[in-house]
Specification:
The complex is a heterodimer of chains A (219) and B (231). Chain A is of the alpha+beta class and 219 residues long. Chain A has helices spanning 15-26, 43-48, 68-78, 91-117, 120-141, 154-159, 166-173, 177-180, 182-192, 195-200, 204-218; strands at residues 6-10, 32-35, 57-60, 63-66. In chain A, strands 2-1-3-4 form a four-stranded mixed β-sheet, with helices on one face. The longest helix of chain A is centred in the middle third of the chain and has 27 residues, at 91-117. Chain A is globular and about 50 Å long. Chain B contains ten helices and four strands; from the N terminus they run βαβαββαααααααα. Chain B has a four-stranded mixed β-sheet with strand order 2-1-3-4, with helices on one face. In chain B, helix 1 links the parallel strand 1 (7-11) and strand 2 (33-36). In chain B, helix 1 (16-27) packs antiparallel against helix 7, helix 4 packs parallel to helix 7 and helix 5 packs antiparallel against helix 6. Classes of the chains: A alpha+beta (219), B alpha+beta (231).
Chain lengths: 219, 231
């Protein structure tokens, strides 16, 4: 498939963009990567995602697909001949994968943001909420290598990019995620052994610099 | 095909998220047992079957652990019984398009109605009504694209977005009356206005659309348990 058939509009620091990068890499899909300046969005982005004006956007044969979890499912369905499958074949396990990817979407981003966006008592509350959410995910993980079973897949892809926030959250929040959630951190290390993951995730130290800049701007 | 007694749905008749699952069960001619939940005093069954969110709907299928989240349940039912009234299309880009708009409805559009209920003050309410109408206009454009001149988002017959948005019709009309506006305005969103009438009268759906008394009781419960913000 020609590279320009598949275009990804993305931003290096985006956890949502990272999900799509991981999925494309898992499936070995050649594509053109376009870095968006989020303070000066391109006309292509505004045209391809007029409703939300957000990255990531996957453009395949000229048609846009938006919303990272939706894009990951699309990648799995549009390239069924490329292994590995990102969702299990059993309908019940597929439902589980979708439930947990949706849980990550609903909860993790906002909870993480609140840690670096607040101070004092509010920050303590935010830290507890974040750790509690990670513990729920640890509960789902149990003794399994990955969130749904033996194979890395959709639910893992939706969560793993947030691991690049851990260094920032631990430094700013003065906490140890490994101490609170050792099984989850072991899962992070397991996922990071995959080339698709370590090549797609931004450097946690670069993320920290970005977060500190954002904190200064917000005052 | 599900055997009699194999599928149970835990929910409440007033919940649009429950109604959309009922729509799909009806369209697929899947028999099910409805277990009524009291949201003002949540049952042990709900708390143990959905410990993460403690919300309805919850689907029980034979001996499998429960499935939660209405859109997850709908895709499960579609995959479990694909041959009777397919809900999502089969082409990947069409599936992505449908999921995108379901995400918009659930995360951007319908929350505005709850925001409207909780917001005090006439001016602030007017601002939210304006946002709702803008959202409705976006959905009208989506309807034009998906229906391609036909009666439903799914084309000739009901599809994913018909059940995903259609489940809110009763609440949209209830909210419109209470707040003296028309969310599906006949001038700005003529196609949606007509589509809403079709949904209301569709054979497979009308039994699962709550009546005014059910909505009013639920609304009064919300006003107590999640009261509007103080001015």
């Amino acid at each position: 498939m020609a590279g320009s058939d598949v275009v990804l509009l993305d931003s290096w620091a985006s956890v949502f963009g990272a999900r799509v990068r991981i999925a494309l890499a898992e499936k070995g899909i050649k594509h053109e990567y376009k870095e968006e300046n989020l303070t000066d969005k391109s006309s292509l982005l505004l045209q391809m995602n007029p409703v939300h004006k957000k990255i990531p956007v996957l453009i395949h044969h000229g048609k846009p697909i938006c919303e990272s979890n939706i894009i990951v499912q699309y990648i799995d369905e549009a390239w069924p001949e490329n292994s590995p499958p990102l969702l299990p074949s059993d309908p019940y396990l597929r439902a589980q994968a979708r439930f947990w990817a949706d849980f990550v979407d609903k909860k993790i981003y906002e909870a993480g943001k609140r840690i670096w966006g607040t101070k004092g008592e509010e920050q303590e509350g935010a830290k507890k909420e974040f750790i509690d959410l990670l513990k729920v995910l640890e509960g789902q993980l149990g003794e399994k290598p990955y969130l749904i079973g033996e194979s890395f897949g959709y639910a893992d892809i939706s969560l793993i990019p947030f691991s690049c926030w851990f260094y920032s959250l631990e430094t700013i929040g003065k906490m140890s995620i490994e101490k609170e959630c050792p099984k989850l951190v072991a899962w992070v290390k397991r996922c990071m052994e995959r080339e698709s993951v370590f090549k797609s995730l931004p450097d946690p130290h670069k993320i920290y610099k970005l977060v500190v800049e954002l904190q200064k701007k917000l005052g | 095909m599900a055997k009699r007694g194999e599928i149970k749905l835990l929910g409440t008749a007033a919940s649009p998220y429950v109604n959309r699952v009922q729509f799909v069960l009806n369209l697929k001619s899947i028999e099910y047992e409805f277990i009524e939940e009291n949201l003002a005093c949540k049952s042990e069954l709900l708390l143990t079957s959905n410990p993460v969110y403690k919300k309805i709907p919850v689907l029980f299928h034979a001996n499998k652990p429960p499935i939660c989240e209405s859109l997850v349940i709908i895709e499960y039912l579609d995959e479990f019984q694909p041959d009777v009234h397919r809900i999502l299309p089969s082409v990947p880009v069409d599936r992505a398009d449908n999921r995108f708009w379901a995400n918009y409805v659930d995360n951007k559009y319908f929350p505005l109605y709850e925001e409207l209920r909780q917001t005090p003050g006439k001016e602030d309410k007017e601002a939210i009504k304006k946002q709702i109408i803008e959202g409705s206009v976006l959905l009208e454009e989506a309807f034009e694209k998906f229906s391609n001149g036909k009666a439903y988002f799914g084309g000739d017959d009901l599809g994913y977005l018909d059940v995903v948005l259609g489940c809110f019709i009763a609440w949209i009309e209830f909210s419109s009356k209470r707040n003296e506006f028309n969310a599906f305005d006949e001038v700005k969103t003529p196609k949606l206005a007509k589509w809403a009438e079709r949904i209301r009268s569709h054979e497979s759906l009308k039994g699962a659309i709550p009546g005014n008394e059910t909505l009013m009781n639920f609304y009064l419960m919300l006003q107590i348990h999640k009261p509007p913000r103080a001015t």
